[in-house]
Structure formats: structure tokens, C-alpha cells
Amino acid sequence: MATESGADEVAIDAPTYFRIFKNGRIERLHLPPSLPAGLDEATGVVSKDVVLDTTTGLTVRVYLPKLQDPSNKKKLPVLVYIHGGGFVIESAFSSWYHNYLNLLAATASVIVASVEYRLAPEHPLPAAYEDCWAALKWTASAQDEWIAEHGDVARLFVAGDSAGGNAAHDMLVRASGNDDDGPSIEGAILFHPWFAGSKLVDGEEESSWEFNAKFWAFVCPGAVGGSDDPRVNPMAPGAPPLEKQLGCKRMLVCAATEDKLFATERAYYDAVAASAWPGTVDWFESDGEEHVFFLKKPECEKAKQLMDRVVAFIAGA
């Protein structure tokens, strides 16, 4: 029986992932195992954890691909990756992300810096954004010996999936010239990014729209304008023009047709493509697949096709 305070009454339910109660308590259901850094025998990629802030726990897991020819001093592009999970679950250390980023580092020949950021509700937004920004600036500074020796921070990319894709957009906003010491970003890869808004977009399911509005209020209780806060709705009335939000030269937006976020992802891409932003934006669609399928089954044919497109994008194609 529910208590008088409603402590046992569910407010937001994402089956198999998390459950949020009316008193603000969260029950995390999706708990993949954490994997240690080190040598990945399958890919030859080696990884290590670097603690950036002992107070907040901000940590970056750096992945260095196997150098095929150690005498070749050509430096590798560098990619900062922001994991998904709605800002409430998941980790840079989880099996999903550790395995996928080993594969990405090896296939794309890219150094990856994966951000372990603070989660809501214990640390509401903008805590995650601030952690990711600090990690991005640290990566761009090449303070790390692997990045300094083997990385080319002039070819810096930022990427993320789901909520991490949303955070990647926020990194572009912060890098768009409003911060004098902001990094120069060549490209952004948004995998199935999470956006919302106070109005339905074409093709969006009403249940998904309602969930997103409620969920944004939970992870960012201080948001101005509710789900029309520009951080979750970059196309909201009163938001800065997109050409003033995007601090990179190129962008790849990836979506899956069976994803409940497909309509908002397409709306975001269309808005960027129609804006006065001088960069180039590409769209990649995985037919018949669901949200972040490539993390769940990275060896499937559609995941391989997506990886091929990401590799080509990083290479400049």
C-alpha cells in the first residue's frame, strides 16, 4: 500500500531501465557490469582511467588503438564520447560502452576519451554538462601523455548517444565562441540524440512527447521554459539561431527508424540543414532498428553499416 507521501507511487517508468517515484526517488534497473580499463585482446586497444576531479569524481577513460607501425609518427584524430542513459543511468565503465568504444577506437583509428560524469537526480543538470565540458577542455589541452604523443587535437570530435547526444549538442553551444578558452571542434556525431519540446513535432508519438517533457523536468528541475529550454529544444521559440549554437565544422546525425525519438531527431537535423550555419550536416538512418541498437548488438549488419559511416565521417568523407 502506498504511503501518504506517495513514496511508492511511480511518476515516470522506463521498463527495464529505470523507475522514478513521485517523491523523487529513482530505482535503477539497467545495471550492466562495469569493466576495468586495460588491454582489449580482441581489438588490441589499450585503455586507462584518468581522474580529473577527485571532489566530483569526474573521470575520463582514454582508449588508444594499436599502432600498426610504431615508426609512423602520423597522429590520430581525438574523439570525446558522452554516454547515454537519460542522465540517470549508465557509465563510461559499463560493458556496453567499454566494448563499443574499443571497437570504435580500433576501426576508426581514433583516440577516444569517454566521460564518466555525475548523474541525476543526485546531481541534477547542468552537472553532467559541466563535467563533460571540463573533460572536453582537458582532452583538447593534450595534457594526457597518450593524447600529446599520438593525438592530433586539431582533429577533435565530440560524440554521444541518446542523452549523450544531447550533451554533445550542449558542448557545441559552449564551443560556439562564447568561451574564450573553448576548444576548436572539427566534427560532432550525434547517435540517436535526445531532444524534447512543448509541442509535438511531425510523426512524434504523444506518449513519447509526454514522457520526454516529464523526464526533462526531473533531470533538470531548474530549467527555464520547461521542455522549451534550449538545452533540450534547440529549436524552441526564443532559442538562439542554430548557426550561433553549433561550434563545429561538420556534423553527422544518426537515427533508427523504430526509435521513439526518430521524429525529434529528424526535426533537429532538418532545422540544422535549413539554418544559416556554414558547416555541413549529414543524416544516417538505420532502417528497422531501435534506440541505440548498435550498443546492444554491435556485430549486427546494421551496426557495421553505421560504424562504416562513422569511420568515413571521422576520415573526412
- Low-pLDDT parts are none
- Strand order, main sheet: write it out: 4-5-7-6-8-9-10-11
Secondary-structure element string: EEEEEEHEHHEHEHEHEHH
**Beta-strand proportion:** 15-25%
Give the total of beta strands. Answer: 11
Helix count?
A: 8
**Based on helices, strands and strand pairing, what is the structural class?**
alpha/beta
Q: Could you tell me how far the N terminus lies from the C terminus, measured between alpha carbons in angstroms?
A: 59 Å
Mass-distribution shape:
globular
InterPro entries: AB_hydrolase_3 (IPR013094), AB_hydrolase_fold (IPR029058), Carboxylest/Gibb_receptor (IPR050466)
GO molecular function: hydrolase activity
Protein name: Alpha/beta hydrolase fold-3 domain-containing protein
Pfam family, one: Abhydrolase_3
What's the SSE blueprint?
Elements: E1 10-14, E2 18-21, E3 26-28, E4 46-51, E5 59-64, E6 76-82, H1 95-108, E7 111-116, H2 127-140, H3 145-150, E8 151-161, H4 163-174, E9 185-191, H5 206-219, E10 248-256, H6 262-274, E11 280-286, H7 293-296, H8 301-315
